[in-house]
Amino acid sequence: MQYPSFTKEHKSMMAKYLTKEVFDELKDLKTKSGFTLEQAIKSGIDNPDSGIGIYAGDKESYDTFGALFDPIIEEYHGFSKDDKHKSNLNSDELSAPNPDPKNEYIVSTRIRVGRNLADFPLGPAISKEQRDEVENRVSLALGSLEGSLAGKYYPLLGMSEADRVSLIEDHFLFKAGDRFLESAGLNRDWPSGRGIYHNNEKTFLVWINEGDELRIISMQKGGDVKEVFERLVLAISELEKKIKFAFSEHLGYITSCPTNLGTAMRASVHIALPKLAKDMERFKTITDKHHLQIRGVHGEHSQSEGGIYDISNKRRLGITEVQCVQDIYDGVKELIKTEKELKAKKS
Ligand code: ADP
Ligand code: ARG
Question: What pTM did the predictor assign?
Answer without folding.
Answer: 0.98
